[in-house]
Write a structure and sequence with these properties.
Helix content: 40-55%
Structural class: alpha+beta
Number of domains: 2
Strand order of the largest sheet: 8-7-10
Radius of gyration: 22 Å
Distance between the termini: 22 Å
Number of helices: 7
Largest sheet: 3 strands, antiparallel
Low-confidence stretches: 1-22, 223-228
Strand content: 15-25%
Order of helices and strands: EEEEEEHEEHHEHHEHHE
Length: 228
C-alpha cells in the first residue's frame, strides 16, 4: 500500500485557532494512491477534479463549498439518527397481538436470546460508530465553517478514518429487509418510522463521506505534502 510523506509547516494547535479556508496549492507534488506515480496538480480555479496521468485514479476532488455540503449532510444525518433510535423499526401483528421493536430493543433482544457477540456487533456498527462519527463531524465542521480550527483536529481526523469501516448501517438495513420479507409468510409486517429514516440515514452518511475531504482540513492544520 502506498504512503504519502508529510511535513509540519506549523505546530498542531492546542487550542482552537482561526484559519482561513484555502484550496490545495497549485503545482503541489502528490503521489497516486494506486500506482505511486509522483505528479503535480494542475492549476485550477473553483471546483476541480484531477486524475492520475498513468492509471486515471482520483488524485483530487476539490469543491469550494465542500465543508458546507458536508455540514448540511451531517446535520441531516443527526436528525435521522435520532428518529431511527426513537421510533420502532417494525411492528409485527400475529393473531391480534402486536409487537414492535426499536433499534435498541433489537440489541437487547439479541442479548437476552443468548447472543451477546451478535448484540455487541449490532450495537457497535449501527448505534455507537454512526453516532460517534456524526458527533465528531459536527464538532469538526461547525467551527471550520466559521473559519475556526477546533482543538484536537489531528486526533479526530485519525479517529474518523479508523472508525469509517466499522459503520455498517447499510448492512443492518439489508438484513432487516430480508428478515421482513420472510416474516410476511407468518405475520402481518408493518414498517415503522425508524425503518424509513434508517434508509435515509444510509444515504445521508454516504453523501457526508463523499463530500468531506480530509486533505482540506490537514492543510488548515498546517500539514502539506512534501515538495522538492
Amino acid at each position: 500500500m502506498s504512503t504519502i510523506r508529510y511535513r509540519f509547516i506549523a505546530p498542531a494547535p492546542m487550542l482552537a485557532q482561526r484559519r482561513p479556508a484555502a484550496p490545495p496549492a497549485r503545482g503541489e507534488l502528490v503521489a497516486c494512491h494506486e500506482c505511486d506515480l509522483l505528479q503535480r496538480l494542475q492549476p485550477f480555479s473553483g471546483d476541480s477534479v484531477q486524475r492520475c496521468a498513468r492509471c486515471r485514479a482520483l488524485l483530487l476532488r476539490y469543491r469550494v463549498d465542500g465543508a458546507q455540503r458536508s455540514l448540511a449532510w451531517a446535520l441531516t444525518g443527526v436528525m435521522l439518527f435520532l428518529i431511527t433510535n426513537a421510533f420502532p423499526i417494525v411492528t409485527l401483528e400475529l393473531q391480534g397481538i402486536r409487537n414492535n421493536s426499536t433499534l435498541a430493543g433489537t440489541v437487547l433482544s439479541l442479548w437476552h436470546e443468548g447472543l451477546p457477540i451478535v448484540a455487541g456487533v449490532v450495537a457497535i456498527t449501527t448505534i455507537c460508530v454512526p453516532g460517534i462519527m456524526l458527533a465528531a463531524m459536527l464538532y469538526l465542521l461547525l467551527p471550520l465553517n466559521r473559519g475556526v480550527l477546533p482543538a484536537g483536529s489531528i486526533g479526530l481526523l485519525r479517529a474518523l478514518a479508523a472508525m469509517r469501516p466499522w459503520g455498517m448501517v447499510e448492512v443492518f438495513l439489508l438484513g432487516v429487509l430480508v428478515a421482513l420479507v420472510k416474516l410476511t409468510h407468518f405475520a402481518s409486517v408493518i414498517p415503522g418510522t425508524a425503518l424509513w429514516s434508517l434508509g435515509a440515514l444510509v444515504i445521508a452518511l454516504a453523501a457526508m463521506s463523499a463530500s468531506f475531504h480530509a486533505d482540506e482540513v490537514w492543510r488548515r492544520i498546517g500539514i502539506q505534502p512534501l515538495k522538492p
